[in-house]
Write a structure and sequence with these properties.
It is built from twelve helices and eleven strands. It folds into two domains: 200 residues, no CATH class; 122 residues, no CATH class.
Length: 330
């Protein structure tokens, strides 16, 4: 891979100039945590680097909660999304498989993907529920993202992964090829330390394939017991970087609205005749895990859980899926 570097103060000035041509979203921290913000010149100094992870998943930029799919759309400025953790980058792999299907691609999703430069951020730490390495996902991007970014010793380092990333870096005149081996070695040491920390903290958790087998073979009682705490709010699917279910709602005037749906909602699988295979909450609860660990990987050859842990953090009922999987593996 190619590496480029630029001084942090020069990068900040570059971002201010880029705002003339791009809409930029970047990770910013406040008293509530870290999330993406629409960046203005005054916000540039507050952008965070290499801190896991924003509260909102990358999915939200490509699959809005609600959108009218029949109305005309004004041209949009190209956009940059800066600070994406690799758990979200890897989640995009599944979304691309679904929404960029050769025969049935989603034109709105496709346009957003083509209009966006993805700049991922290597994680130099972990949060309590992070478990990406358990599913063979690194805490730093090696594919899909256009570039990756690292802030180290006052220097911004870019790792280039796509041709779009190459084209972007060429527009930054002050960015130069990185030749300092000590800097690259320092980054590698940080990568290794975070990977080791993640592996150690989640060493008892079954891997992705094993989890699929455990879920498939599990007795219904364990799902019934844990589903007693579920309130069917759908928070787990909303924050998940890979959940993609939606409704297509007909409106007056031949308008159609695409709206996010969730398999945890009552009525999710109800049909016109009134039958509902997932009427009981325990069945909806089990369905989610089967979808993520069995059905999706079989159909798309891609992981439908990237170990971000957001569903654990967002759950009103304090349901921890990792504790369920540990219980299954005993």
């Amino acid at each position: 891979m190619q590496y480029y570097s630029i001084k942090k103060e020069e990068w900040d000035k570059t971002l201010e100039h880029l705002l003339l041509s791009y809409t930029i979203f970047a990770t910013v921290s406040n008293e509530f945590g870290q999330d993406y913000e629409l960046i203005k010149p005054a916000d540039i100094g507050g952008i965070t680097y290499n801190i896991p992870k924003p509260a909102t998943s990358l999915k939200s930029f490509f699959l809005p909660v609600k959108e009218n799919v029949t109305s005309a759309r004004a041209p949009q400025k190209p956009r940059i999304i800066l600070g994406i953790p690799n758990c979200d980058i890897e989640g995009l792999s599944l979304l691309d498989s679904i929404y960029l299907d050769e025969d049935y691609n989603d034109i709105f999703y496709r346009d957003r993907r083509e209009n966006t430069i993805l700049i991922s951020s290597d994680c130099f730490g972990k949060q309590e529920h992070c478990h990406c390495t358990t599913y063979d996902i690194k805490p730093f991007a090696v594919r899909i993202s256009d570039l990756a970014i690292v802030l180290i010793d006052g220097i911004i380092v870019f790792r280039i992964m796509t041709e779009k990333g190459n084209e972007f870096i060429r527009t930054i005149s002050l960015a130069q090829p990185l030749t300092d081996k000590n800097t690259l070695e320092s980054i590698e040491k940080k990568h290794n330390a975070v990977e080791e920390s993640l592996r150690e903290s989640q060493k008892m958790l079954p891997d992705y394939k094993k989890t699929g087998s455990l879920v498939s073979e599990a007795n219904m009682k364990i799902f019934s017991d844990h589903s007693l705490h579920c309130v069917s709010c759908g928070a787990c699917t909303t924050v998940c970087p890979t959940c993609t279910c939606f409704l297509l709602i007909d409106k007056p005037g031949f308008e159609k609205v695409k709206q996010m749906d969730a398999c945890q909602y009552p009525g999710f699988e109800r049909v016109a005749g009134g039958e509902d295979a997932l009427f009981e909450i325990k069945d909806r609860f089990r369905n989610r895990y089967l979808c993520k660990y069995v059905w999706k990987p079989e159909k798309f050859e891609s992981r439908a859980c990237t170990g971000c842990g957001r569903c654990i953090e967002a759950c009103i009922g304090k349901i921890n899926k990792n504790e369920i999987f540990l219980e299954l593996s005993r």
